[in-house]
Amino acid sequence: MRRPSLLFLNVIIIATCGLIYELLAATVSSYVLGDSVTQFSLIIGVYLSAMGVGSYLSRFIDKDIAERFIEIELAVAIIGGLSAPLLFLSFAYLSYFGIVLYTLVFIVGTLVGLEIPLLMRILKDKLDFKELVSRVLALDYAGALVASLLFPIFLVPRLGLNRTSLVFGILNAGVGIWATWLLEPMIPTRKLTLLRVKGFIVVVILAIGLIKADSLTTLAEDGLFVDNVIYAKSSEYQRIVVTKGKVGYSLFLNGNLQFNSFDEYRYHEALVHPGFAAFNGDAKRVLILGGGDGLAAREVLKYKTVEQVQLVDLDPAMTQVAYSVPALGELNKHAFEDPRVQVTNTDAFVWLDNVSTEPFDVVIIDFPDPNNFALGKLYTTRFYNLLKQKLKPDSAVVIQTTSPLIARQSFWCVMKTLEASGYTVKPFQTSVPSFGIWGYALAKLQPFDTPTKPPENVELRFLNNETFASLFEFPSDTSKPDFDLEINRLDNQALVRYYETEWRRFEQ
Fold first, then answer.
1. Helix (H) or strand (E) holding 31
2. pLDDT grade for 128, boundaries at 50, 70 and 90
C-alpha cells in the first residue's frame, strides 16, 4: 500500500459526497413535492438506516477488499452523480416518483455504508485499532460538516442541483481512480487496468451529463410544465420558472404556481384594496412583505396619495424577474422603477425585528404558503407581534392565507393566530380560476367594521361594490370549523402540520 495516510482523505470525500447526495434528494423532493417536513425526515431516516445496512453487509466481503472498495466508490459515483437528473426526470415522466426517490436514497446510503468499514479493514494493519477508529470517525464527521456548509452556501446557488450532483459524481469517480494507485500493491495488475477503465467510463458519462446539464433540466421541466419554459433560474433560495402558454404567462417557484397573467388581477386586487378600504384616511406609507413579482406593488401604486412603498422580499433573483422577462415587467407596469418603491432583499422576519422605521398605514403580506418551517415562522404569533411595531393604531393589514376550501384548518389557524396576537380579524375569500377558492385575512389592532365597498376613483378590473361585499361571506364548506384549532407559534409550527396534512391529498 502506497502512503496509507492519503487514504484518510477518502474518508472526508466519502462522507462529503454521501451527505451531498442525501441533501440533493431531499431538495429535489422539496422542489417537486413541496418542502414537506415529513418528506425530509423520511429521506434522512432512510439514508441513515441504509448506511447501517451497508455497514452490516460489509462483513460478507472477505476477499479482494481493495478491489471491492474501488468498485463501490465507482458505483456511488455513477448512481449518486446521476441522482438529481434522474429524480427530476422521474417526477416529470413517471407516476411512481416516491419509489424511485427512496430506492435511490437507500442504494446510495447502502453503498456509502459499505465504504467506511472496508476502508478501515484495509488500514487495520497500519494503525492500532484505537487510532484507526478515532481518525476515521473524526474525518467522517468532518466530511459531513464540509457538505453541510458547501451545499447551501456555494453549490446550489452557483451550480444548481443537477450540476452539483454530476460534479460530485465526477469527484467520487476521480477518488476511485486515484485509489487504484494508492492500493496498487493489493490488486492484481490485470484487475487494476479493468478498474481504471471502469473509472474512466464513469467519468466520461458524468462529464457528458455535466455538459448537457441544461438540456437535462430543460427536458425535465418540459415534462413538469404544460406550457413552454421561457425563463428558468436557480437562486440561493428557490427554482424560478416562467412559462408562456395560450392564456398567458405563469410564474412557478419550486414547481408551485404563483400566478397566471390571465387571472392574477383577481388575486392581487383582493389582496391589496380591502386594506385601503379599511384604513381611515389617505394611505401614504405602505409596506409589502413578499410580493417580489411586483404585482401587489402595481395595485398599491394606483393610489395617488401613496408616497412611499417599502417592499421586503427575501430573494434578489425574484425581484429581478420582471427585468429579465419584459412581459412580466409590463404586467406589473414597471412598479419597481417607480421612485416611490424601495426594494429590500432580506428575510422579512429579521427585517421586522431589526429595522427601525416610521409606522406604515397599510401592510400587504404576500408570502408563499406555509409548507415548511422557514415559511411557517412568517405566520406565527411572534411574527405578528413584531409586525405591531410597524403599525399605527388604525393601520390595516392584509395577508394571503391559502385556500379555505382545500386547507380549511390551515386557513382558520391563521385567523386564530392573528387573534391570539391581539388583532381584530375579518377573514375573506375570492375565486381565482388558476387557484380555485383563495383566502385572505384583513386585520387591525382595534375593532373595526367590515368594509362594504372598494375605494373610489381606483381603476379595478374585478372588484366592484357587489363583488367586494361578497368577499366576506363564507359558505358552509369554508366557514370556521366547529372544533378547536391550535395557535401557530414558533415552538409548535402547528400551521405547517395542518398544511401538510391537507395539501398532501392533492400531491401526485
1. helix 7-33
2. low
Rounded Cα distance, 147 and 17, in Å: 7
The grid coordinates listed for 156 are 446550489
Distance in angstroms (rounded) separating the CA atoms of residues 208 and 202: 10
Angle formed by the axes of helices 83-93 and 156-182, nearest 10°: 130
Half-sphere exposure of 448 (CA within 13 A, CB side): 24
Contact 437, 403 (CB under 8 A): yes
Phi and psi at 431, nearest 5°, equal -105, 125
* 192-226: b (≥16 Cβ within 10 Å) or e: beebeebbeebbebbbebbeebeebbebbbeebbe
Rounded to whole angstroms, how far apart are CA atoms 345 and 314? 5
Nearest alpha carbon to residue 485 among 398, 419, 440, 402: 419
At 400, give phi and psi (nearest 5°): -75, 135
Distance from the Cα of residue 410 to its chain's centroid: 19
pTM greater than 0.70: yes
Q: pLDDT tens, 47-69?
A: 889 999 999 999 999 888 889 98
Helices (H) and strands (E) in the chain, counts: 20, 11
Is 173 exposed, middle or buried (CB count within 10 Å of its CB: 0-12, 13-18, 19+)?
buried
| Contact call for residues 427 and 441 (beta carbons, < 8 A) | yes
Cα separation of 370 and 451, whole Å? Answer: 27
Q: What are phi and psi of 359, to 5 degrees?
A: -65, 155
Active site residue 366: yes
pLDDT tens for 409-439 read 999 999 999 999 999 999 999 999 999 999 9
Per the CB < 8 A criterion, the answer to whether 469 and 453 are in contact is: yes
C-beta of residue 153 within 8 angstroms of C-beta of residue 140: no
Question: Residue 58, exposed/middle/buried by CB under 10 A (0-12, 13-18, 19+)?
Answer: buried
Q: Which domains does the chain have, with CATH numbers?
A: 4-220 (1.20.1250), 229-258 (no CATH), 261-506 (3.40.50.150)
Measured distance CA(73)–CA(13) in Å, rounded: 10
User: Among 35, 293, 313, 366, which one carries the catalytic annotation?
Assistant: 366
State in Å, rounded, how far the first CA of the chain is from the last one.
52
289 has which bridge partners?
Answer: 312, 365
If we measure between CA atoms, which residue out of 179, 183, 175, 182 comes closest to residue 206? 175
